[in-house]
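Late entry, evening session. Most of the bench is empty. Finally got around to the prediction I had been postponing all week. Sequence below, unchanged from the version circulated by S.P.
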Amino acid sequence: MDHPANPDFLADITGALDWWRDAGVDCDFLDEPREWLAEPEADGERPGAAARRPARAPVEPVVEAPARLDPATLPADLAAFAPWWLSEPLLDGGATAGRIAPQGAAGARLMVVVEEPEAEDRETLLTGPQGKLLDAMLSAFGTRREDVYLASALPRHTPAPDWNALNQLGIGQALAHHVTLAAPERLLVFGGNILPLIGHELPQRPAVLRQFNQQERTIPMLAAWGLPALMRQPRAKPVLWRAWLEWTAA
């Protein structure tokens, strides 16, 4: 049997709500915080149990190690090295535009290695200010660019390269293999970042004498500051000149 609504009760409820609304309270509040984004509670689980459950450990994303050069894929002779240098994706994260090939013949009396091509280079290594400095130095050394084997540790001009990461990819192994294929009588390297690639510590002086150990022979090596540093530090040039004289006299 239905009962008619009690008008007095409804009036009391409406009046109470109006009183609270006039007092500025128009929302419902809870004393305990509630996790609105929590997973729905399972059947029979007590209220608040989800908030007491330990948080799930975040799932760590799987980071694959970058691909590394396979020593078995390195060119077998110097003639094959330049095409490989210009096209091998792993040398530079897949980018091949702007790469510059080495130049010279195997068995040169001197092999010169710089860290990277200049920004101005398009088809030939060192066509900007660094190249002019190198040509002047080679002339003072009694030789010329056409008589040396010229190469770079990186295939293209790379602003602020991450040398440690590049070495992890195998750039140092590629450089050492390159020197082995070129088989020069002497090795002159410009740039402190080159020595760690081939197993030496960073140079602390403008020029230091070292040895490059090949598979079956040792090549005398003179390591100097990079050409940009020599351009900024004219006082380093006499140090390099004295090291050159000592090196060639020996």
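Two things to note before I forget:
The chain has nine helices and five strands.
The mean pLDDT is 85.
Will write this up properly tomorrow.
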